[in-house]
Design brief:
The structure is a single chain. By secondary structure, the chain is mainly alpha-helical. The chain has 2 domains: 60 residues; 40 residues, Irregular (30s Ribosomal Protein S14, Chain N), CATH 4.10.830. 51% of the residues lie in helices and 4% in strands. It contains 3 helices and 2 strands, in the order H-H-E-E-H. It has a two-stranded antiparallel ribbon. The radius of gyration is 21 Å and the shape is elongated.
């Protein structure tokens, strides 16, 4: 199940990059070319409404690469805080030191 979630997350991210470009182009055309014909505007609005909202950036969740945990994930490492703490304690991540006070 964990590998299935990772592959689904990967496909969601790919679809997001593909759909984001379309969304930006359609929105740009609609906002800056106000003198377009009505039927062209209507087709652009229809194509905007048909975009799949499951793959938008707000639906993408960061998850840990090693454990699949979705909460408290560091974006730079793509690891959860627990996994990062364990890897840092074992000196597996170069340049990461355990700090204590």
């Amino acid at each position: 199940m964990f590998l299935n979630n990772l592959s689904f997350d990967f496909t969601k991210r790919n679809f997001f990059f593909f759909l984001e470009l379309r969304l930006i182009v359609f929105s740009y055309i609609l906002s800056f070319y106000s003198k377009l014909f009505f039927n062209i505007k209507l087709t652009l609005i229809k194509s905007l409404s048909k975009l799949n909202y499951d793959f938008f950036s707000t639906r993408i969740k960061n998850s840990c690469v090693l454990t699949g945990r979705q909460g408290s994930v560091y974006r730079f490492f793509r690891m959860s805080r627990i996994t990062l703490r364990n890897a840092g304690g074992q000196n597996l991540i170069f340049g990461l030191r355990k700090s204590s006070w």
